[in-house]
């Protein structure tokens, strides 16, 4: 076989384009990829074989994954990517779980509620 014929018959095929891979192979999600076809399903940036998150069989960079799929904070609406406070049937960033009157952090296990928002012991 000539080199192109050998590659066509024996090289892994890229999941992104279906063509033989004759250079660097990325193995991810159970299939092979050309490096330039293994891209984030959100921003389309090359993932380069580094860390990624998977959703519905598609790879995502950490920023796009958080933006599209992470739980949202009830206080600010931004994605929660670290530990969260679960209260009032919602998730909150620690910095966002504050008294609705004085805006100080609500740190006690017991707190009051007004309009489905936390109140610290002093403001209750």
TrEMBL record:
Q: SUPFAM superfamilies from the entry? A: Glucocorticoid receptor-like (DNA-binding domain)
Q: Which UniProt keywords apply?
A: LIM domain, Metal-binding, Repeat, Zinc
Q: Where is the LIM zinc-binding domain?
A: 12-71, 72-124
What does the entry list under GO cellular component? M band; nucleus; striated muscle dense body; Z disc
Q: What lineage does UniProt assign to this protein's organism? A: Eukaryota, Metazoa, Ecdysozoa, Arthropoda, Hexapoda
The superkingdom of the source organism is Eukaryota
Q: Which organism is it from?
A: Lygus hesperus
Pfam families, from UniProt?
Answer: LIM (PF00412)
Which GO molecular function terms does the record list?
A: metal ion binding; transcription coregulator activity
The protein's location, in the record's own words, is:
Cytoplasm, Myofibril, Sarcomere, M line
Q: What name does the UniProt record give this protein? A: LIM zinc-binding domain-containing protein
Listed PROSITE patterns? LIM_DOMAIN_1, LIM_DOMAIN_2
Q: What is its main location?
A: cytoplasm
* InterPro entries for this protein: Znf_LIM (IPR001781)
């Amino acid at each position: 076989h000539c080199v192109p014929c050998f590659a066509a018959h024996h090289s892994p095929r890229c999941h992104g384009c279906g063509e033989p891979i004759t250079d660097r192979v990325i193995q991810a999600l159970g299939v092979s990829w050309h490096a330039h076809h293994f891209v984030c399903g959100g921003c389309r940036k090359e993932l380069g074989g580094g860390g990624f998150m998977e959703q519905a069989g598609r790879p995502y960079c950490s920023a796009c994954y958080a933006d599209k799929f992470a739980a949202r904070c009830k206080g600010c609406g931004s994605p929660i990517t670290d530990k969260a406070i679960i209260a009032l049937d919602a998730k909150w960033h620690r910095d966002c779980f504050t008294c609705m009157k004085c805006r100080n952090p609500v740190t006690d296990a017991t707190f009051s509620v007004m309009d489905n928002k936390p109140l610290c012991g002093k403001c209750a």
